[in-house]
Automatic annotation (TrEMBL):
UniProt protein name: Methylglyoxal synthase
Active site feature: 60 (proton donor/acceptor)
UniProt KW Lyase keyword: yes
Highest rank taxon of the organism: Bacteria
Gene, per the UniProt record: mgsA
Organism field: Crassaminicella thermophila
EC number, UniProt record: 4.2.3.3
Secretion signal, residue range per the UniProt entry: none
Swiss-Prot/TrEMBL GO biological process terms: methylglyoxal biosynthetic process
Family classification: Belongs to the methylglyoxal synthase family.
Amino acid sequence: MNIALIAHDKKKESMINFTIAYKGTLAKYNLMATGTTGKLIQDATGLNVKRFRSGPLGGDQQIGAEIAVNNVDLVIFLRDPLTAQPHEPDILALLRLCDVYKIPVATNVATAEILLRAMERGEFQWREFVQKYED
């Protein structure tokens, strides 16, 4: 299972707190993140995180490319809905790819918790579900 972690600047503290709280669960999976977010997660938790570029410097697009080649199973993208982002087209492209490839995406901590708790219980096997109904 490959999980992508992304957080806008005003949401980085929430992402750190989230990854600390769910460190035990996240440690079971392959993690990837945009640059600064990934470094903060690694420093705070000791988790191994594959880091891409910062979001505005192409990191969102790099994670989008991973989605397009079926290397991402879940995206946790803590977005700041109250601040304009200079790379908004990249963000929308990444979210669009999640929709196209049926990748669950959480854009806030509440949804991220629901998805991770479902995974912990073994109740969240969307890959098998999607494959079954697409065949």
